[in-house]
């Protein structure tokens, strides 16, 4: 509880720091940009002549003078219509002519446009004259506005002329007179003379330089000079603004760093009690839908802007704290809730729009999936007109989509029909290629499954027949060999009189009869194991103890073959669910296989591995003979690793082991890699394996 309280307290403190820093940022911007009318960029300006403020001051005057002498000329020029272009007159006439066509009874559609236009000019003569007068008034108003704006820049001395009209606030007319001032700008004949010269290095100078291209090089002249008092005043104001901007920029950076660090920290820990905890804890704010949350954030921004816009500049400095702090606290609570949903991967799913669309989709899908073909057809028949009505403005596209959908369904149906014909004709390898889902997709998949089932059944039957044939052939061969020997030696005994030879024949008969017994016993056991007609008693078995005890029974064989057994098993006891007798019989068959075919003096590895839901038992040994047949062939009945069939086994050991393991609900596999033979038994783990 203490840790929880400490974590919550830390978050509250960091949240307060974040809101304080954010409020400090907003107050700093208002103080610098609005109240002091400074600019943060001035903190990086080295000189007044290189400042943005200097260019702005001059641009207003130079652009105004340029427009006066190149565009407006004089009041007399404007009153005579000199500033009115043909395009402006034509635009006004076109607007009035449209009104004439739709509103005037004088318009006659049976007449030509030229005849109607003549009627229009007579009827709308007064309106055309008023429209022209209004254009002149607008230009006169713009002329006086420019002249007033230029006059407000006291301390700037200017002279501009187009050769006829002169705009000036001084009696000076010569360029050299203007060049006596501490700063000046001269534009004539596409040339410019600027002093101080470093003004041209100002990054905003292009804003002034462009106006010289608007002047007529033969007639237009613009001279601008700056008095010393004017420059001193402006430089003083610039230095004050620079000082304010520099202090403001430092505070802005400090507040920004504090805000960023605190916000990043809260974004990392929000919803969690610690960095290590992965589970997110949601609160009542997080229950708001994402889109509603975003709308509330936008509303809070608009509210803050409306409040700050409603007060005068002098009151902003006082009101910024009581207004910004509560709005920012609420707003960032919503923003952190959005961050929490991003971390929880529910940003889209928790929106109201997504929820409504998903509910509609789920309802339609449930009805569509739960209904039969008739219900789905009804839904399509009802849904399509609704879709057309909702998208009437793109009806051709909707119709095209419907045609494409119908064509796709017909194409799918034809593919299924053709596939059924192919499979019915006996081509079981044919697959119906259908990419879509739904009823037709399921139908195609089911037909393909039927074809696959038929292929597997046919393949299984062919394999069974092949195995039966091989079994009969191999059994006949393996049984005939000792049986032929027995018959031969019995015939010899009938005529043999020598006691020593009789004894020798009897020994051979004994060996062959035992060999025949082994073959018949293994064949009988293989048949029982393959059919599953063996009683199975599953119980809890310690697999390590079973193998360890079994080593004692086969120790003589191990010493005879000079084999070194390596048993690897977990430290804890490992239990499996199996039949002890059948499991040992399977392991004994594998050991017998090892004794017959393993390389003398080599190592045999037995690994016991505890997996998530079972126990894996692996036997690995090196074969004395080249394993020149596949693992699948080794698993077949009456097959042996030496294809010369020189050993005395029946070749049924692996097959018997596999069947015995499978009837114990286990799995048996073998793997051949060069001369390495590996057999793997997988058995289910006993439920109390951890006891």
- Report, as a whole number of angstroms, the end-to-end distance: 36 Å
Indicate the percent of residues in helices: 55-70%
Mean pLDDT over all positions: 81
Strand order of the largest sheet: 2-1-5-3-4
* Sheet with the most strands, sense and barrel status: 5 strands, antiparallel
In percent terms, what proportion of residues is strand? 5-15%
Look at the helices and sheets and give the structural class: alpha+beta
Compute the CA-based radius of gyration: 51 Å
pLDDT below 50 for ≥5 consecutive residues: which ranges? 637-647
Keyword list:
alpha+beta; 691 residues; 21 helices
List the helices and strands and how they pair.
Blueprint: H1 2-35, H2 52-72, H3 75-79, H4 86-103, H5 113-123, H6 125-151, E1 156-161, E2 166-168, H7 175-178, E3 183-188, E4 191-195, H8 206-209, E5 221-226, H9 228-269, H10 290-310, H11 313-343, H12 352-370, H13 373-390, H14 395-424, H15 439-495, H16 499-531, E6 539-542, H17 543-553, H18 555-561, E7 564-568, E8 575-578, H19 580-597, E9 603-610, E10 614-622, H20 631-635, H21 653-662, E11 667-673, E12 676-684
Parallel strand pairs: 7-9
Antiparallel strand pairs: 1-2, 1-5, 3-4, 3-5, 6-8, 9-10, 10-12, 11-12
What features would you describe in this structure?
The protein is of the alpha+beta class. Helix content is 62%, strand content 10%. The protein is built from 21 helices and twelve strands. The strands form three sheets. Strands 2-1-5-3-4 form a five-stranded antiparallel β-sheet. A five-stranded mixed β-sheet has the order 7-9-10-12-11. Strands 6-8 form a two-stranded antiparallel ribbon. Strand 9 and strand 10 form a beta hairpin. The longest helix is centred in the C-terminal third of the chain and has 57 residues. It is elongated, with a radius of gyration of 51 Å. About 2% of the residues have low confidence.
């Amino acid at each position: 509880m203490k840790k929880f309280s400490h974590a919550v307290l830390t978050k509250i403190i960091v949240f307060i720091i974040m809101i304080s820093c954010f409020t400090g940022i907003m107050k700093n911007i208002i103080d610098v940009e609005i109240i002091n009318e400074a600019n943060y960029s001035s903190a990086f300006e080295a000189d007044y002549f290189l400042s943005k403020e200097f260019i702005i001051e001059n641009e207003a005057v130079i652009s105004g003078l340029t427009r006066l002498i190149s565009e407006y000329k004089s009041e007399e020029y404007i009153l005579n219509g000199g500033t009115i272009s043909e395009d402006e007159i034509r635009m006004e006439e076109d607007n009035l002519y449209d009104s004439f066509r739709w509103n005037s009874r004088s318009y006659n559609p049976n007449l030509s446009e030229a005849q109607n236009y003549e009627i229009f000019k007579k009827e709308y003569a007064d309106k055309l004259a008023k429209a022209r007068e209004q254009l002149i008034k607008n230009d006169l108003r713009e002329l006086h506005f420019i002249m007033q704006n230029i006059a407000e820049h006291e301390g700037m001395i200017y002279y501009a002329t187009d050769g006829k009209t002169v705009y000036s606030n001084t009696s000076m007319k010569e360029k050299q007179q203007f060049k006596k001032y501490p700063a000046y700008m001269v534009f004539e004949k596409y040339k410019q003379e600027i002093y101080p010269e470093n003004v041209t290095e100002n990054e905003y100078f292009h804003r002034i330089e462009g106006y010289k291209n608007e002047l007529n090089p033969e007639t237009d002249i613009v001279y601008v000079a700056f008095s010393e008092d004017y420059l001193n005043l402006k430089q003083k104001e610039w230095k004050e603004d620079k000082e304010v901007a520099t202090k403001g920029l430092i505070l802005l950076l400090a507040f920004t760093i504090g805000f960023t660090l605190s916000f990043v920290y809260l974004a990392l820990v929000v919803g969690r009690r610690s960095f290590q905890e992965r589970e997110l804890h949601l609160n009542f704010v997080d229950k708001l839908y994402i889109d509603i949350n975003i709308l509330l954030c936008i509303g809070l921004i608009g509210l803050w802007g409306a409040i700050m816009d409603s007060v005068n500049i002098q009151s902003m400095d006082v009101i910024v704290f009581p207004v910004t702090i509560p709005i920012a606290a609420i707003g960032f609570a919503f923003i952190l809730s959005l961050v929490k949903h991003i971390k929880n991967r529910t940003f889209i799913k928790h929106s109201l729009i997504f929820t409504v669309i998903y509910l509609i989709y789920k309802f339609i899908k449930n009805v569509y999936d739960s209904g039969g073909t008739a219900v789905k057809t009804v839904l399509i028949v009802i849904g399509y007109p609704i879709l057309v009505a909702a998208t009437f403005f793109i009806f051709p596209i909707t119709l095209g989509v419907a045609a494409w959908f119908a064509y796709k369904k017909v194409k799918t149906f034809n593919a299924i029909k053709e596939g059924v014909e192919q499979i019915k004709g006996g081509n079981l390898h044919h697959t119906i290629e259908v990419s879509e889902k739904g009823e037709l997709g399921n139908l195609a998949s089911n037909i393909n499954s039927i074809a696959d089932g038929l292929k597997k059944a046919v393949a299984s039957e062919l394999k069974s027949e092949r195995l039966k044939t091989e079994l009969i052939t191999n059994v006949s061969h393996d049984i005939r060999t000792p049986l032929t020997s027995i018959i031969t030696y019995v015939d010899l005994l009938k005529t043999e009189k020598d006691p020593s030879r009789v004894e020798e024949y009897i020994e051979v008969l004994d060996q062959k009869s035992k060999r025949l017994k082994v073959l018949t016993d293994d064949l009988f056991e293989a048949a029982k194991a393959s059919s599953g007609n063996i009683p199975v008693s599953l119980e809890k078995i310690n697999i390590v103890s079973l193998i360890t005890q079994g080593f004692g029974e086969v120790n003589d064989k191990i010493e005879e073959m000079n084999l070194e057994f390596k048993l690897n098993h977990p430290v804890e006891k490992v239990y499996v669910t199996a039949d002890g007798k059948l499991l040992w019989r399977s392991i004994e068959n594998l050991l017998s296989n090892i004794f017959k075919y393993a390389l003398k003096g080599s190592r045999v590895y037995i690994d016991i591995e505890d997996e998530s839901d079972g126990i894996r038992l692996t036997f690995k040994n090196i074969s004395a003979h080249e394993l020149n047949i596949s693992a699948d062939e080794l698993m077949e009945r009456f097959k042996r690793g030496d294809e010369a069939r020189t050993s005395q086994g029946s070749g049924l050991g692996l097959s018997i082991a596999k069947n015995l393991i499978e009837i114990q609900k286990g799995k048996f596999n073998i793997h051949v890699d060069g001369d390495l033979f590996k057999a793997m038994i997988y058995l289910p783990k006993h439920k109390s394996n951890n006891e």
